[in-house]
Amino acid sequence: MSMIRDLRAVVRPSRVSLRKDSGTYDATRSPATATAVVDCAIYRDGRRIETGTPLTPHEAVRLVRRDGGFVWIGLHEPTEAEFSGIASEFGLHPLAVEDAVQAHQRPKLERYDDSLFTVFKTIHYVEHDQLDANSEVVESGEVMCFTGRDFFITVRHGGQGSLRALRHRLQDDPELLAKGPSAVLHAIADHVVDGYIAVADAVQDDIDEVETEVFSPGRKGSPRGSDAGRIYQLKREVLEFKRAVSPLLRPMQLLSERPMRLIDPDIQKYFRDVADHLARVQEQVLGFDELLNSILQANLAQASVAQNEDMRKITSWAAIVAVPTMVCGVYGMNFDYMPETHWKYGYPVIMSITVTICLGIHRTLKRNGWL
Q: Residues 295-336: pLDDT tens digits?
């Protein structure tokens, strides 16, 4: 089908970074009051039904159950009170509702009666001029999706992960949207994973930069220990990235392999593509962690070698200084009879012997690589 052939073209442009949604009017509130509802629309035969005025979730449900189609409601950081009415309208399970409101959930897929609850963690790369020990590399958010027979609800947390542009692209492909809520779930999953791919490429550049600087010979101007701080910061950011990617692989495999009543068979096969891309990103992230461990160990080894070289230099100069110190100590003692003290050439002879011994020690240490 042409819809299936165009599926990837619809969702792939979502790699472009998107700006945060601005709130839209919700008729259940005063226009002066902020609303968690970003958008509420009815789709029938793949096309958005224009009503002339903003729909409330209650009105959308009533129209869908009367005339068919499905409703897509987008919310941003709703409170429990704001979400309770929608949850009651669609019969959402209280445990899923609690997770959606509180956020900070692990990526997962859960089935509750006649709905699927899916949690995605969105990852955004934070641009920075110079990577240092305090740089924020990735910023995470969350997208929770409730998929039903005639509804699709998205709950976003965090400033990133806007779905506005994705919604517009889906609306430009009515044949795809005609497949129902499962088509929207796939598009969001693909959008999130595409974001992972873009972030992984950017993080790879940061790791390559740190690796190059750590192993650059004769690099000057960098305080000792600063590389270790940057590497450790990168490890922390990669760990946050891994927490978003790794738990999501199993849900994507389930969506692609296990027949589900709420997932259209024509759409289900495309979850395999999402799972494959996600597996590739997971391998990259695990590779990042191992590579950063190796770089950190190499950096610590370099610091240890530098410290040993410093100690050898200090010890070498101490050995050289010990010769005149000993000679001066001997001649500083209060004896009546000291060798060469009454000889006219005694002083230059003693000094010459001292300098000769010091030069000999210096040459020996330098030849052995201590200086």
A: 888 877 777 777 777 787 787 788 778 878 777 776 766 666
pTM of the model: 0.73
Best CA proximity match to 150, nearest among 64, 86, 91 = 64
| Closest alpha carbon to 228 in 137, 141, 133 | 133
CA distances from 107 to 73, 188, 242, 257 (A): 21, 14, 11, 18
For the chain, the average pLDDT equals: 80
Determine contact, residues 289/238, Cβ cutoff 8 Å.
yes
SS3 state of residue 105: coil
Sheet containing 151-157: give its strands across. 47-49, 37-44, 70-76, 151-157, 138-147, 115-125, 108-112
Answer whether 242's CB lies under 8 Å from 143's CB: no
How far apart, in whole angstroms, are the C-alpha atoms of residue 272 and residue 177?
A: 19
From residue 274, how far is each of 8, 17, 23, 245, 267 by CA, in Å?
A: 10, 19, 30, 12, 11
Residue partners of 221: CB distance under 8 A and separation at least 6 = none
Please tell me which residue, 104 or 365, carries the higher pLDDT value.
104
